Inverse folding.
């Protein structure tokens, strides 16, 4: 593997690094290596441990065991400040600079050139201008940073990092909010930094960008190191395989029977050319009662965005939604709920549970919303609902008055499922229903999905686990880079076909 | 009989260990200590006289004087529960006071019911203004209500034409000065307001939705709770509470002082809510403990005054007590104190 990078020196080495959070082993004995003047893509799905690794490297988290060495010097568990001083700079998707200060002020914040104890503005602006033009960024450094586009702000952040004598630059999803031209600008800058011998760690969900810019790829999965590969020697489909933990040879076709629908029946929900700038390009989907529409695609492909558009949380720029053939407009989630929709979001902590409320209150919340605020469900009615679902979904909780935040992830997920089942929806959208859920709960949830479908509910299920999508879907909409690229039906619903569909379009 | 076993049994029986965790525990301890101080220092604090079938005494006085802040704190509790704050309640007190005084003095409205109705409508409009700024324009509550805090006194001055309006009106005087069942009528108003609010929050889903919004606004949006509607209701309610407080204060002194009516009272209300254990970040609210917080603050003020301590010290003593109550209520602080105390105990235990 070292054949064509023999000359380069390793600058950053991580070995046997472990980090555990209560109940979760976020990193177990992982390794990572970065050489001078290379772009290393760091890839992995949700919970792979990418962010944890970066936070350990930059001193945000203290790791439990292992070693992190920068240019031969151990930097494990130093403070964020001293690590930055030693030469690791991080630029995040959300720029961590101050928009109301000038570009020059941002670059030299905390280390302004002084003259007689006061800031030497002329010098500072001069230095800033020089620094940026050396990177081919020609902007007015005396204007506020907030006046510039995100791409420029990011480059300023990079300039600040590089100027603080960075040896290693970590770019955490830098392109997520950029358009293709801006991405091009950023890549030019990255190549230039590479020439200067800076090692760059590039975290992203966009696979085509990985192939465009990176020299090597490190893949993590479930807190473990999967491998480091030369980009040119790793076909896309293998990369996806590594990320998802699947080999291409696996067929993945299941013996399950598809839920048939009558010819020419009107779909429960159909969306025509629905899209929103910056979220997802216009696309159409149809969801039939008694069928499950799977949404496949990698993280960041626009899956959650599609769900939010359908559920009225985001308002689409284009297209229309029809419920049983009738056009309808949702201006918020309340409208969607009244029309019989339900949406179990991906980010359980932020978008799902209301931590301070009890298990019971969390369960009845959506039903209460649907019924309106004027008449509260009596405590007796609430208890009936809580008992029913605690029992039928096998939720482990000592009592239903316990705050839901004290439950485990899997049980919280079931509480949210119960919340929506209680509203008796016609269409249930599940975004990553099995994420962060233990194996036992996972199979229970999958079984519930199948039962609901057989009872005639329409389902739309989003999942990163391609096997899972294949297992429960009657049709699969494949999304990639915020576009719908294919719809798989019938015999095409196999893991292999799904993987190759995602990979094909990349090249 | 083994005394140790009996003691352990009693401990288990009454779950004494869980009592300090009850949110009522520390505020009640603080109130108890204050009352104990008064009992030792000046037992006449607890004396209640009956004159003409009416009760008089320091205790009654505490409740009577606490009434306006109790009403403000009721509205404030719900506003804070949604993650907001209402700085304008003192200004609304002034506006409503000025309105009532003007209506009476100019002779525009004769009937008490009419005056009260107009005052409530005015306070609702003031609250709706705050609500609209917060809920529909998305302005941060502290800024949105600051606008009315500043403008409100100006509006009140416009109504009173810069004068202190005084009046006589038998019906309106009853609100702040009348007696009902032997107690000042303002106490009845407070009891009605608290009980009524408690019932409404229990019987409708408003209480649940308020906690949801304050606890997790994003998840509340995803579950279809219309935060704008709930926030509007809450700010209007806070306005009405301020309106009632304004009527009590105006009726009590038979006059409206646009500059000083309810001055700084928003801060007392916020203090009472916080002492009552509702977090400024929103979420779970505790109406009952808010009321205890109000009573603590008023007992403190009355204690200072009846003990002849110069008025200049009132604010400082008040702040000191509030800091102590808050520190004691903080779980983290208690743990740290425990960390300091415990090792010593362990040592003494082993040395035996």
């Amino acid at each position: 593997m070292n054949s064509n990078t023999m000359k380069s020196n390793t600058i950053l080495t991580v070995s046997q690094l472990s980090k555990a959070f209560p109940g979760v082993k976020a990193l177990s004995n992982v390794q990572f290596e970065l050489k001078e003047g290379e772009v290393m893509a760091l890839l992995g799905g949700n919970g792979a441990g990418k962010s944890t690794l970066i936070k350990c490297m930059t001193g945000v988290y203290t790791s439990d065991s292992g070693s992190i060495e920068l240019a031969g010097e151990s930097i494990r568990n130093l403070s964020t400040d001293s690590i930055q001083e030693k030469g690791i700079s991080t630029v995040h998707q959300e720029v961590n600079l101050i928009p109301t200060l000038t570009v020059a002020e941002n670059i030299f914040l905390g280390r302004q050139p002084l003259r007689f104890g006061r800031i030497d503005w002329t010098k500072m602006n001069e230095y800033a201008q020089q620094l940026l033009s050396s990177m081919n960024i020609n902007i007015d450094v005396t204007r506020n940073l907030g006046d510039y586009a995100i791409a420029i702000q990011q480059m300023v952040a990079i300039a600040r990092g590089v100027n603080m004598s960075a040896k290693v630059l970590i770019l955490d999803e830098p392109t997520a909010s950029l358009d293709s031209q801006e991405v091009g600008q950023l890549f030019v800058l990255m190549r230039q930094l590479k020439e200067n011998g800076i090692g760059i760690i590039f975290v992203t969900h966009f696979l085509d960008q990985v192939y465009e810019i990176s020299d090597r790829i490190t893949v993590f999965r479930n807190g473990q190191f999967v491998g480091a590969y030369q980009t040119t020697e790793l076909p896309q489909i293998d990369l996806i395989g590594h990320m998802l933990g699947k080999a291409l040879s696996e067929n993945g076709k299941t013996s399950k029977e598809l839920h048939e629908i009558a010819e020419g029946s009107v779909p429960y929900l159909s969306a025509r050319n629905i899209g929103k700038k910056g979220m997802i390009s216009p696309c159409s989907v149809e969801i039939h009662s008694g069928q499950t529409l799977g949404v496949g695609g990698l993280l960041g492909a626009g899956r959650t965005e599609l769900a939010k558009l359908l559920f009225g949380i985001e308002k689409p720029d284009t297209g229309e939604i029809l419920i049983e053939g009738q056009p309808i407009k949702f201006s918020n989630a309340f409208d969607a709920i009244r029309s019989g929709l339900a949406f179990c979001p991906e980010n359980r902590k932020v978008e799902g549970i209301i931590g301070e409320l009890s298990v019971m209150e969390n369960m009845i919340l959506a039903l209460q919303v649907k019924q309106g605020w004027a008449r509260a469900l009596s405590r007796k009615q609430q208890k009936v609902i809580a008992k029913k679902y605690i029992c039928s979904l096998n939720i482990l909780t000592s009592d239903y008055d316990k705050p839901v935040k004290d439950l485990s992830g899997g049980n919280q997920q079931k509480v949210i499922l119960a919340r929506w089942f209680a509203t008796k929806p016609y269409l249930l959208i599940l975004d990553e229903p099995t994420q962060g859920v233990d194996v036992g709960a996972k199979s229970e949830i999958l079984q519930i999905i199948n039962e609901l479908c057989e009872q005639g509910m329409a389902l739309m299920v989003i999942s990163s686990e391609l096997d899972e999508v294949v297992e429960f879907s009657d049709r699969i909409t494949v999304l990639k880079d915020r576009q719908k690229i294919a719809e798989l039906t019938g015999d095409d619903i196999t893991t292999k076909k799904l993987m190759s569909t995602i990979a094909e379009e990349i090249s | 009989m083994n005394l140790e076993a009996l003691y352990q049994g009693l401990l288990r029986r009454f779950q004494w260990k869980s009592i300090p965790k009850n949110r009522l525990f520390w505020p009640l301890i603080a109130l108890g200590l204050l009352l104990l101080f008064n009992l030792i220092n000046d037992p006449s604090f607890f004396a209640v006289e009956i004159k003409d079938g009416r009760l008089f005494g320091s205790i009654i006085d505490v409740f009577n004087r606490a009434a306006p802040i109790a009403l403000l704190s009721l509205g404030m509790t719900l506003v804070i529960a949604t993650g907001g704050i209402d700085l304008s309640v003192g200004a609304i007190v002034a506006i409503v006071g000025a309105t009532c005084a003007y209506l009476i003095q100019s002779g525009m409205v004769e009937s008490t019911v009419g005056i009260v109705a107009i005052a409530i409508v005015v306070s609702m409009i003031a609250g709706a203004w705050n609500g609209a700024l917060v809920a529909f324009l998305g302005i941060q509550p502290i800024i949105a209500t600051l606008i009315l805090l500043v403008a409100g006194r100006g509006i009140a001055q416009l109504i009173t034409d810069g004068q202190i309006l005084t009046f006589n009106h038998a019906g309106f005087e009853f609100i702040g000065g009348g007696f009902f069942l032997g107690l000042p009528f303002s106490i009845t108003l407070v009891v009605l307001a608290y009980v009524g609010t408690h019932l409404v929050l229990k019987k409708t889903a408003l209480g649940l939705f308020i906690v949801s919004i304050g606890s997790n606004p994003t998840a509340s949006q995803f579950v279809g709770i219309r935060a704008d509607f709930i926030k509007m209701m809450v700010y209007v309610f806070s306005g009405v509470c301020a309106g009632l407080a304004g009527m009590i204060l105006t009726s009590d002194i038979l006059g409206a002082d646009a500059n000083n009516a309810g001055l700084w009272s928003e801060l007392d209300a916020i203090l009472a809510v916080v002492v009552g254990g509702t977090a400024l970040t929103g979420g779970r609210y505790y109406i009952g403990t808010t009321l205890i917080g109000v009573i603590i603050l008023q007992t403190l003020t009355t204690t200072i005054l009846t003990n002849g301590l110069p008025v200049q010290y009132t604010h400082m003593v008040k702040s000191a007590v509030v800091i102590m109550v808050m520190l004691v209520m903080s779980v983290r602080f208690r743990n740290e104190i425990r960390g300091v105390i415990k090792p010593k105990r362990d040592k003494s235990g082993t040395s035996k």
In short: Residues 87 and 167 of chain A are 5 Å apart (CA to CA). The interface with chain B takes residues 313, 332-334, 336-337, 343, 345, 350-357, 361, 365-366, 368-377, 419 of chain A (CB under 8 Å).
